[in-house]
Amino acid sequence: MTTQPDNFGFGEDETMLRDAARKFFQDNLDAAALHGIVAGDSSPLRSSEARWGRSLWQQVVELGWTAACVPERAGGVGLPLVAALALAEEAGRAAFPSPMETTFMATAVLAACNTQAADKALERIAAGAAVALAVMDHRGSLEPTDTDVTVGPDGRLEGTASFVQEAQKCDAFLVSARGAGGIGLYWVEADVCDVRPDHIIDLTRDQASVGFGDTTAEEIAPPGSGDRALDTALPAMLSILSADMVGAGEWLLQTTAEYAQTRVQFDRPIGFFQAIKHPLVNLMIEIDDTKSLAYNAACAVDVGDEEAINLARMAKSRASDMAAFSASRAVQFHGGIGFTWEAYVHLFFKRQMMSQTLLGDGRYHRTKLADALISPAA
Questions:
Q1: Which of 68, 174, 329, 368 pairs with 110 at a CA distance of 20 to 30 A?
Q2: Which CATH superfamily is domain 227-373 in?
Q3: With contact defined as beta carbons under 8 Å apart, do 331 and 349 qualify?
Q4: Is 75 left (phi over 0), alpha (psi -120 to 50) or beta?
Q5: Domain segments of the chain: what residues?
Q6: If residue 151 lies in a helix (H) or strand (E), which one and from where to where?
Q7: Under a CB-based contact definition with an 8 Å cutoff, are residues 317 and 362 in contact?
Q8: DSSP element (H, E) containing 314
Q9: Which residue stretches of 47-175 are H helix?
Q10: For residue range 98-146, what is the model confidence (pLDDT) as tens digits?
Q11: What is the chain's Cα-based Rg?
């Protein structure tokens, strides 16, 4: 295992970036503002139209956050992955409805391609383009070879990518497609695709199936190399999502602890009782564990540790379990108001439930870890 720097390589630049992001969200997107943006319609029959703050996203682009981890050769800042985790954590704490995390993930994939076309795509991200990954099949498989999209000799795409996150918010898609020579990666502008929104519980995100019917695409990684780029980028993708879950968990913990100090039952704040105290302490421990695992995995990516994928699977496994625990405790401890539409808790509850299964839940990643770490001879 490669030796890692102290504090996961989280230095002065990363600290300043995190603090600036936290202040930005405190000033511009508290829970009440978020609820007003995404939760205006409580009907279960509401449309699947994405509701999000485009003006806030534009401010984020102008602040240079999307360019933070783009390599300097492509016009970015060139910060390590731990900087993206700091931003993802603060975005999770605010449940920021935006394509920021999908763009970070696409950045990791493009950086792993090592092609001139990929560098040009990174330049577009550094200039403000929002990108979503269209790499899953109809079963939600993470295996690159399971894609439902094909590419012909003329470079045109056919088929459908499923479970595409933030599809209605993005300017372009990075698509995995199977050709005669294997899996390649392709850049497709969003306005030429057939985006069919899914109806999901998470109000802070959108999801869609994206159809490619004889669609012209720009080759980013040639057939036979796209699957390697996706595999290389997977640890970064898992780490980014885990950091988002840490941020959402921290919001749920803080909000529930504050409520436990003000809600009175039996002439005492409910936080006085051990049935409330102990689970909240357990949640705090789970959040801290997840945070350490996520930053450890990101640091492993930054230093080129070959164990990065196993460390990232550990982080996502722990994050998925923590997400479910944080969401359920918050709703339960808010009592009769916890499940109501007017309580802001439901926004973070739903985001955590969505995040729990995105890119594989805890059981999936523990199975993968067992396959990797336990010798068949044992």
A1: 368
A2: Butyryl-CoA Dehydrogenase, subunit A, domain 3 (1.20.140.10)
A3: yes
A4: left
A5: 227-373
A6: strand 149-151
A7: yes
A8: helix 308-333
A9: 54-63, 81-94, 100-113, 116-126
A10: 999 999 999 999 999 999 999 999 999 999 999 999 999 999 988 888 8
A11: 21
